[in-house]
Write a structure and sequence with these properties.
By secondary structure, the protein is mainly beta. The protein has 2 helices and 41 strands. It has a 5-stranded antiparallel β-sheet, with no helix packed on it. It has a 5-stranded antiparallel β-sheet with strand order 2-6-7-8-9, with no helix packed on it. The chain has a 5-stranded mixed β-sheet with strand order 3-34-35-36-37, with no helix packed on it. The longest helix is centred in the N-terminal third of the chain and has 17 residues. The radius of gyration is 22 Å and the shape is globular.
């Protein structure tokens, strides 16, 4: 290590010690600081690991100030769940609450989408929701309710304060009354299939950011809708300057201060200046591994202060200075990484949790689950899972992690959870895995009847006991005791849960392939 790099690491450590609140230590658990507390801009530096990539920054607007002045997460105080995994850390902070030990899953309502039967070069996509397909939940403030009632032409008689917003494989965005399951406003046509998670602007300016996933027709790209007028206000077509010629946007956009960051499957990160509800392209960052073609980014970017973290289809995990749109560090995690990097502050230092698929390794390979220092990209630990490629109906199904990890809390705050596609036994199968956040050792593994792409979510009771809800691609749902790994309940409900759920109180909302969106209630039959 050069003296320059030693100095940078010492500087980063000093800055971070003043950047976050002092954590509370509870026994031997990993203590986490308040993720919303910050004092300083993280340094503008370039580690030697970036020598492994080729990159290019283009400034389109040189007159506007590019600096992020407000580094606090705008999602921390939103009245709901506005983006994939709920916020800038992509750590699913929307923990649910249950009484006692949950052992029952009930269907509260089922919403049925349209069906898109168009034949495309990539098959027929139908309806419901796919990967990642997470719903949004909003509890609208009264002032916004009044604006909608005065301005929106799309409200139905079922419109109310609590609303679900979800993109669909049926090439529409649906709005659902959270309590009744009825359509709360007219659907929005997106013309092309939506696979990813839509994103609502946390300033409540009315903008809904949407990425098209499959080209059923042209043009093909990303969109912004204004919910007050119920119209499309911006369309971002395929970028002729991109290094990869694929115009999909499965990543869920994220707003930081005055800027929206849009991550493309064309190997490009876009930075848009937002003024009111208007978007102007400020700058872009393109990157690729040396001697490789550009890779798409399907994962959603996580953000710490002015650092953004992305992963791509070639296994790159890249830290980007969002002020300058230049790389900070690069880590090669071997293979396609579609699950979003998750940030955690542990004992006053930030870390990244991420894992790859088994996509480019052949029939047999490994999923590498890593914990990285978020300031310099150094490896804290690595856990390797053996996986196989499965086949069914002439289609291949890769192994590894497609979900996004879940950090434990309560009596499980020293654990991190994920779904791994293994296919190591006959059939398409997987494991739900709990890892120790200190050293990456496997605390336990729960074999599932079928593999899971859906990301797990958490519920906790008054005693601090932590429970996990997850779902697999055969439509089966599970409640798992986070501490022991005991399966408390499993129930067949949908046809194929690729989508990630949200949890509100003791309610789960999750979309299924086919045509259905479900609201589920998690209960204890002896206490509810």
């Amino acid at each position: 290590m050069s003296s320059r790099h030693r100095f940078i690491i010492i500087l980063l450590t000093t800055l971070l010690s003043s950047c976050f609140a002092t954590p509370k230590h509870i026994g031997d658990s990993i203590a986490t600081a308040d993720s919303t507390v910050f004092l300083s801009v993280l340094p503008d530096t370039l580690f030697g690991s970036t020598d492994a990539i080729e990159w290019k920054t283009i400034i389109y607007d040189s007159t506007s100030d590019a600096t992020l002045h407000n580094l606090a997460s705008l999602y921390s105080n939103t009245p709901g769940i506005f983006t994939f995994r709920g916020g800038a850390f992509r750590d699913a902070p929307f923990c649910g609450h249950v009484n006692g030990i949950p052992d029952t899953i009930l269907v509260d309502w089922k919403f049925t989408t349209d069906y898109d039967g168009r034949i495309t070069d990539y098959g027929v996509w139908g309806g419901g929701s796919g990967w990642t397909g997470q719903p949004l939940y909003v509890n609208w403030p009264d002032s916004i309710i009044d604006r909608f009632r005065n301005e929106s032409p799309a409200l139905t008689k079922h419109f109310d304060k609590e609303e679900i917003i979800i993109g669909s494989l049926a090439s529409k965005i649906y709005f659902i009354n959270f309590n009744t399951g009825d359509s709360s406003r007219r659907s929005l046509k997106t013309h092309n299939t939506i696979k990813g998670t839509v994103s609502l602007d946390p300033t409540l300016n009315g903008n809904l950011y949407v990425g098209q996933g499959i080209p059923c027709t042209r043009p093909f790209g990303a969109m912004t809708f204004n919910l007050f007028s119920h119209t499309m206000t911006h369309f971002f077509p395929q970028d002729k300057n991109a290094w990869r010629k694929w115009g999909a946007y499965d990543s869920s956009p994220i707003r930081v201060d005055r800027f929206l960051f849009l991550i493309g499957e064309n190997g490009t990160m876009y930075k848009y200046l937002i003024e009111g509800d208007n978007l102007t392209l400020h700058s872009t960052l393109q990157f690729r591994k040396l001697h490789k073609s550009a890779a798409g980014m399907e994962a959603s970017m996580s953000v710490l202060c002015n650092y953004g973290y992305v992963s791509d289809n070639h296994g790159s995990i890249l830290c980007v200075n969002l002020n300058t749109m230049k790389p900070v560090w690069h880590y090669d995690n071997h293979d396609d990484s579609d699950g979003s990097p998750v940030l955690a502050i542990e004992n006053g230092r930030p870390y990244i949790y991420s894992a790859c698929e088994m996509d480019k390794q052949g029939i047999v390979g490994n999923c590498h689950f890593v914990k990285l220092d978020a300031l310099n990209g150094s490896l804290k630990w690595e856990q390797i899972f053996s996986c196989r490629r499965g086949k069914m109906g002439g289609k291949k199904f890769d192994g590894g992690q497609f979900s996004t990890p879940l950090l434990g809390s309560g009596n499980c705050d020293s654990l991190v959870f994920t779904n791994i596609v293994t296919n190591n036994k006959p059939g398409l199968q997987g494991d739900f895995v709990a890892l120790n956040r200190y050293d990456g050792s496997v605390a336990y593994s729960v074999h599932m009847n079928h593999y899971a792409w859906s990301s797990p979510v958490a519920l906790i009771n008054d005693q601090g006991q932590f429970f996990v809800f997850t779902a697999d691609t055969k439509g089966r749902t599970y409640i798992i005791d986070g501490k022991s790994g005991k399966v408390l309940c499993q129930c067949a409900i949908g046809s194929n849960f690729e989508s990630s759920p949200i949890v509100v109180g003791n309610s789960i909302v999750i979309g299924s392939r086919g045509r259905n969106i479900y609201k589920l209630t998690i209960t204890n039959k002896n206490t509810e």
